Structure formats: structure tokens, C-alpha cells
């Protein structure tokens, strides 16, 4: 599905009082998307339903960010992440995503929820873009994608450790 | 979709039907049945459209009710999943979903922010973007509350840190002081024992000195005694000398008398010689006369002869006596000379002994003084000896005191260390908070294999249950006792330091030493606990 869309340099934006909402099952398949989501990414809700969330994955996103995302969700922890997404037409849009597990009445995780807000442009430009570029370079530098992921994840963790007590704290300090 | 258009959507079919039916009635009245029929047909179509719209709206309302009920029950997972409908129904669905999304987002944000506070993370704030009205106000309130809590916690942290630092510096100076005290005690002890040593040395040399002094005193006393003896002897010899001088004088006088008598004898002898000579002459004359008288004179001649012989005998004897007397005189003169010589010598001796007596007296008084001095010295050394033995006693006491001071300083230092550890633990506990402690000590089942290593060996065991603060393990344990420090290895290279808290049969309860744990170990521990929790909830 992914190779079909070629990324372009067009940027899509949304308003600060809007939130892009989606819910997924435990595997990351979309079970709900709000109207804003559909409008921004250009896929209809019918197309989004049951699609893997990677449907809007942008090739500029380093894989280690998603590894961290799934690791924290696996520990039933929330995660904040700056994510560059790709619309149906190849345009990109930056979001500041907040992803949390959803629990049933017995406290069991039934799926995940994400609400995305307009990110701080300055943070994206000055911190996130250079960081992700660096991580992506590390991932590309390894022949095996597994090694690349290990290396970039270690690099991300080192950067986090040098700047703050945890990834969460670092993200909130930006 | 605007309000007027949606109102149009609701009213249009009904209004159209009414208008068409009214038109149809008008057409019937005007006698235009074809027009009336057409209008009735159109009204029927309008009614069908109206019915369809009503059904769709009713379904949308039904879904809205479902979502609203779920929301009311706190279930934010339900949404209206029939999308992209046009008109009122679509609007309703989106409005309901949007409401659910925003409340959902708020609840997730608010609970995550509060959860973060519960875990003592104060950087977490609710992001206000996308929140409006009461949700925004509530978010702001929660954020402000978090600010206040953070401020308080930071102030608390600062004061506990300050407290910790103060206590640490107190403990450090306590430890320093006790170390200094220990050092001082050691030095004091060394000083005391060397004082003791020196005092005993001094005591033995002073007692030696005392003995020496006593010996000297004794010798001095003896010396005085013998000086006195010498004095006495000199006195006696002086007396004897004086006696001898007197006797020599006496002898001289006697000898002088003797010499006078000898001279007088000499004079008598001369008289006798004169008499003897005249007698001889007379005898000679008699002989001549006798010879002239011949025979008559013969008898006379004989007597004359004899007188003559007598006279010559007398002359010979006096000669002899004179000889003797002059010998006596010579001898006497010599005797007088030597007596005079002896007298001089004796007088000299006398003078010398007088001198000697003076110096002997000086010597006696000197030796007496020496003896006095020595006896004083002896008293002095005795006192020194006494004092030294006093010092020795004090030095021994000091040494004992130093020893106890040393052990006190050791105890002080240990107490200081304990204080430091206690305060550290207290502060860690204080920072962690009672809530966190309760949550982190919640036990969940274990089941994984571990290796328990203590100073006395290591063994394999199984984790029975585990929490973030401790665990229970069963198996063939190494010889352990309560309070032992052990390490529990879950996998190679990742081990958790712990202290043994209780032992029952082949079960051991341990408390993890959170402060000493590596981050790998604490990660591993967290994973084990969350796995156990999942197992427990599944069961
Ligand atoms: C609730 C939720 C929201 C997600 N949102 C996004 C997203 O906006 N963009 C994205 O690229 N991946 C998102 N992901 C992650 C994807 O599931 C996926 O891991 C990621 O796109 C990487 O895809 P890949 O493993 O195929 O490279 C989300 C996952 C979850 C659970």
C-alpha cells in the first residue's frame, strides 16, 4: 500500500482548536477516525476503518520512534510523540500525538487511542526535524534493518539521557 | 450544513406534500383530474422522501442515544460508525462523535496528568489545545493544581535535600571528629605508654641514682670518719712531736750538764796529773836521795820506786780518762748537735702537722657538707622516685582512658554512619511517599528461576512472589541468616541487591536495596512485576 503514494513537499495544516482522533485495536488497526482525521489525510472513513495505522506513515519517520511508541504502550504507559504523517496525495502534516491505551472495566487493555494536536512549529523545525534526520541516517547506515533499528534506538536513548531524566520529560520540556 | 438548510431538509418534504395535496384538491375542484392526479403522485413521492429522511434521522438518533448512554456510563470507546451521511443525521453523528472525542481526550489527559502526579512526575501537564469551555477551565485548574503541587514538592525536595545535606555534613563532621578523636586517643595512648615507659626508665634510673647517692653518702660519711681518724692521729703525732721536742730540750740540757761535768772532770784530771807528776818528781828525788843514802836508803829507795810506779800508773790512768772524757765530750757535742737537729725537725713536723690539722679540719667540714648534700640529694631522688611512680600510675590511667576514648570514638563513628544511612533511607522514603510505597509493595506471583548469591555461596531458587520492593524465593538456599546481604540474579549480568528479612523452611523473604540497584536491574524488576500483575489479572 505504501509504495503507491509518493511523498511531496506540500504541507497540510489544521487549526489549534481541532484534534485529530483515532482509535485502534491492539494491533494498530484503525477502529475509529474522526472527521478531522479524514479531512486532513484525505482518506475517507470507510478507507481508514480497519486499515493499519501505518497507512499515513511518512518515510521521513525513523522506525525507532515507533518502537519506543509500542514499547511504552506495551507497558501500559501513555506516549507523546511528534509525528510526520503523509496524506493520501503525498502531502505531509506534522502532529503532536498523544497515544494512550484504552481499558475495559476489568482494567484490561482493549485498544489504543490517539489524539493529535497542532505541534509547536519551532520545536519541529529546530529539534525534531534534525533529530529524526539523524536517526534516519543511522537506520539507513546499516545493511540489516534490525541492526539499524537497534543502533538508532540506542542513539535516541542516549540523546534522551544526555538531556533529561526520561523521554517523557524531554518531550514536555520542549 | 447550515441551520436554515437543515431546517429546510426537515420541513421541505412535509411542506411539499401539504402544498401538493392542497394543489391536488384545488385541481379536483377546478375539474382538472389529470393535474390533480399528477399532484397526488408528486405528493406521494414527497411523502416517501419524507419517510426515508425520517427513518435515517431516527437511526442516527438511535446511534446518538447509544453513544450518549455509553458516555454516561463512562465508556468512551463507543462511536457512531456510520460516516459521511448528509443532512441532519450526518450532522448529529459528527456532533455526537466530536463531543465523545473531546470528553474522551479530556478524561485521558486529566487522568494521565493525575497519574503522573501520583508517580511523582510533575512535568506532565494537560495540553490545552483542542479544549474549550468547561473542559479548558477544568484543564487549567488541574494544571494550576499540579503547578502548586510541583512547587510544594520542589520546596519539600529542596528542604529535604538541604536537611539531608545538613545531616550528611553533621555526620561527616561527626565521623571526622570521631576519627580525629580516635587519632588523638591513639596518640594519647601512645604518649601515655611512652610516658609510662619513660617514667619507668626514669624510676629505675632514679632508684639507681638514689642507690648511688646513698653509696656516695655512705662513702662521704666514711670519708668524714677517716678524716676525723686522720685528724686524731695527726693530733696524737703532734702531741708526740711536742713531747719529743720537750724531751729533746731536756736531753740537750742534760747533755750540756754532762759536758760541763766532763769538763769539770777534765779539770780534776789535770790536777791529778799535776799531783802525779810532782809525785813522780818527788819519787825520783827520793830515789836519788835513797841511792845517796845507799843501803840505808835502800828500803826507801824501794818505796820511792813504788811511789814512782804509782805516779806513772796514775798519769797513765788520767791520760786514759782524759782520752775518755774528750771522747765523751766529742760524743756529747755530737749528741747535742743531733738533738738540736732533731728538735728542729720535730718543730718542723709540728708546724707541718699544725698546717695539716687545718686542712684536715677543712676537709672534715667539706666532707661533712658533702655528706649533708648527698643526703639531701638522696632525699630528693627518693621524692623524684615517688613522683615518677605517681606519673607511671597516671600514665597507665591515661592509657586506659585513651583506650576507652578510642572505642568510644569508634562507636561514635559507627553511630554516625548508621545515622547517615537511616537519614538517607528516611529521605528516600519521604520522597517516594507512602502511596507509592503501598503500590510498589503490592505482591504479584513470580515463577521465574533465579540464582541467589551470598558471601557463603550461591544456589538456584524460584521466585514465589515479587513486588517492586521485595520478594519471596524458594529452593535449596545457601546458608543464610537474617540481615545477610545477597544478590539475586534473574539473568546473566542483571542482579538485584537485597537484604534477607526472614527465613522459613526453604523459603526466604528479601527486601530489595532500591538505592543500589542498576537501572537495568530496576527495569527488569519492573517488567517482572508487570508480568506478574498480568498473570494475576488473567487468573
Ligand atoms: C493509536 C495509535 C496511533 C498511531 N498513529 C500513528 C500515526 O499517526 N502515524 C504513524 O505513522 N503511525 C502511527 N501509529 C503507529 C503505527 O501503528 C505503526 O507502528 C507505524 O506507522 C510504523 O509502521 P511500520 O511498522 O509499518 O513502519 C499509531 C499507532 C497507534 C496504536
TrEMBL record, chain A:
Protein name: Chemotaxis protein
Organism taxonomic ancestry: Bacteria, Pseudomonadati, Pseudomonadota, Alphaproteobacteria, Hyphomicrobiales
Signal peptide coordinates: none
PAS domain residues: 25-50
Source organism superkingdom: Bacteria
PROSITE patterns for this protein: PAS
From TrEMBL, chain B:
Originating organism: Pleomorphomonas carboxyditropha
Family stated for the protein in its record: Belongs to the methyl-accepting chemotaxis (MCP) protein family.
Region (Disordered): 186-214
GO terms for biological process, alphabetical: signal transduction
Alphabetized SUPFAM superfamilies for the sequence: Methyl-accepting chemotaxis protein (MCP) signaling domain, PilZ domain-like
Biased segments, Low complexity type: 192-212
Localization: Cell inner membrane
Domain T-SNARE coiled-coil homology: 329-391
Domain Methyl-accepting transducer stretches: 170-413
Alphabetical list of PANTHER family matching this protein: LYSOZYME-LIKE PROTEIN-RELATED, METHYL-ACCEPTING CHEMOTAXIS PROTEIN MCPB
CDD domains: HAMP (cd06225)
Keywords noted in UniProt: Cell inner membrane, Cell membrane, Membrane, Transducer, Transmembrane, Transmembrane helix
GO MF: cyclic-di-GMP binding
SMART domains noted in UniProt: HAMP, MA
TM region(s), chain numbering: 36-55
Protein name per UniProt: Methyl-accepting chemotaxis protein
